[in-house]
């Protein structure tokens, strides 16, 4: 249970950061930042990333994950969560410092997948055709997970059991958030 608790402890600010991002898009906040990260750059006459990877998304995800991680850290310090759930117990390293890394990892993890899809003429938000559909569905579920774990490992590498629990959480939460986005009209499909 401690490994699951640690995984939930790490995943929660990223999940809440993603939900915050959904709320920001839905409310239309920071619309001036909804500019493509790739700036319209093309490779082989195809967009590098497309219109769905925006500066607003990157900034909101990093800021929101950072804020949720800081709030979580403050709640932990107040005794709300058991020490056994804290990924770094009993070292006491301020986990709130990991928020920017986890938020940036989420965004950076999605970029190679988006670039590959654009080069294969798969439109942003569209499913891959034919037999590639299943492959890209899996990539869509785990790309951000891989980015979060990779950047987190710059300062602390979670044990394998925690990583496996994080993957399991990702495989449940990512499609659930996609379903929420369909429900509020931000996406046309879950997978």
What order do the helices and strands come in, and which of them pair?
Elements: H1 2-27, E1 42-43, E2 46-47, H2 55-77, H3 99-119, H4 132-152, H5 160-183
Antiparallel strand pairs: 1-2
Give a structural overview.
- There is one protein chain.
- This protein is an all-alpha fold and 191 residues long.
- The chain contains five helices and two strands.
- The chain has helices spanning 2-27, 55-77, 99-119, 132-152, 160-183; strands at 42-43, 46-47.
- The chain has a two-stranded antiparallel sheet with strand order 1-2.
- Helix 2 (55-77) runs antiparallel to helix 3 (99-119) and helix 4 (132-152) crosses helix 5.
- The longest helix is centred in the N-terminal third of the chain and has 26 residues, at 2-27.
- It is globular and about 55 Å long.
- The mean pLDDT is 89.
């Amino acid at each position: 249970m401690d490994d699951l608790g640690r995984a939930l402890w790490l995943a929660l600010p990223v999940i809440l950061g993603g939900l915050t991002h959904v709320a920001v898009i839905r409310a239309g906040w920071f619309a001036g930042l909804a500019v493509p990260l790739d700036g319209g750059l093309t490779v082989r006459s195809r967009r590098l990333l497309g219109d769905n990877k925006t500066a607003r998304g990157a900034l909101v995800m990093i800021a929101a994950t950072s804020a949720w991680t800081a709030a979580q850290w403050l709640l932990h310090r107040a005794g709300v969560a058991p020490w056994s759930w804290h990924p770094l117990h009993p070292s006491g390293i301020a986990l709130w410092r990991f928020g920017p890394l986890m938020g940036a990892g989420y965004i950076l993890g999605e970029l190679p997948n988006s670039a590959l899809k654009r080069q294969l003429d798969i439109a942003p938000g569209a499913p891959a055709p034919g037999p590639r559909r299943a492959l890209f569905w899996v990539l869509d579920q785990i790309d951000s997970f891989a980015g979060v774990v990779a950047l987190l490992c710059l300062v602390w590498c979670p044990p394998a059991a925690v990583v496996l629990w994080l993957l399991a959480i990702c495989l449940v939460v990512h499609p659930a958030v996609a379903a929420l986005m369909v429900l509020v009209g931000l996406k046309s499909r879950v997978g």
